[in-house]
Amino acid sequence: MKVIAGAGAGMVSRLPASDNAAMTSRILIIDDDLRLAGMVAEYLGAAGLRVAQAANAREGLDRLKREAFDALVLDLMLPDADGLDLCRRLRTTSDIPILMLTARGDAMDRVVGLEIGADDYLPKPFEPRELLARLRAMLRRRSAGSSPELRRFGRLEIDRGARKVRLDGEERALTSYQFALIDALAEHAGRVMSREALMDLVKGEPAGAFDRSIDVHISRIRALIEDDPKRARRILTVRGAGYVFAREQDR
User: Fold this and answer.
1) What is the mean pLDDT of residues 107-128?
2) CATH number of this structure's domain 150-245, picked from the four choices 1.10.30.50, 3.40.50.10160, 1.10.10.10, 1.10.246.90
3) pLDDT (tens digit per residue) in 72-81
4) Of 6, 84, 177, 185, which has the fewest CB atoms closer than 10 Å, so is most exposed?
5) Class of domain 26-143
6) Where are the domains of the chain?
7) Higher model confidence: residue 36 or residue 42?
8) CA atoms 28, 33, 34, 35: torsion sign
9) What is the average per-residue pLDDT within 43-51?
């Protein structure tokens, strides 16, 4: 982490209201800039989160193997690994929510990060309170869905209790964000949902009018649940309007 807006004296004194979903949650920050990462950790800690730090990919992986964390803040540039490669590696074994820190203006890194499984991204420079808000939204999504309700749409099954999606009985490896997204679409099956409405439902906060990251997540979900992602039958695009989850699907 090289730049953070608002870092310095008084950063911890101006905190947003606490969020019960975030209290006692454990966050791991993997970043080689220990001074700034420490300042962020102090800010998040004052907000009720328990924060641990790792200075490189090797140390971060070791901590993830030994300890349980509820979310991960992952810097793209690490001294011993590429953050995108590390995210890809983690997604083969874990569904931990991942917020990736990326350089401002480097849209391709953000798109690739979402495609390989990051739940959210935050460009630098950033405000600590925005990082906190995004982490809280990720934690709310992870803690939601405790209802045992099971939704079935033909061969597709959405298990809200286990927060799992299965096609033909085989689990599909969706991230926490992607599960929340497909669950929101399924809850409003047959209804066209705009990008802004979906992001508002999933993140719990209004989306930027030009934020197209949701398209990347939809593309990833389709790759996992559609027989032919180029001819989607479950999540349909309504041009100029948004997306709709089909009520009637293949049996």
Assistant:
1) 84
2) 1.10.10.10
3) 999 999 999 9
4) 6
5) alpha beta
6) 26-143, 150-245
7) 42
8) negative
9) 94
Q: Which residue is listed with tokens 């995108």?
A: 84
Residue 60: both structure tokens together = 């971060």
The model's pLDDT over 73-103, given as tens digits with 9 standing for 90+, comes to 999 999 999 999 999 989 887 888 999 988 7
Three-state secondary structure string covering the chain: CCCCCCCCCCCCCCCCCCCCCCCCCEEEEECCCHHHHHHHHHHHHHCCCEEEEECCHHHHHHHHHHCCCCEEEEECECCCCEHHHHHHHHHCCCCCCEEEEEECCCHHHHHHHHHCCCCEEEEECCCHHHHHHHHHHHHHHHHCCCCCCEEEECCEEEECCCCEEEECCEEECCCHHHHHHHHHHHHCCCCCECHHHHHHHHHCCCCCCCCCHHHHHHHHHHHHHCCCHHHCCCEEEECCCEEEECCCCCC
Give 104's pLDDT tier (boundaries 50, 70, 90): low
Please tell me the number of Cα atoms within 13 Å of 142 on its side-chain side: 22
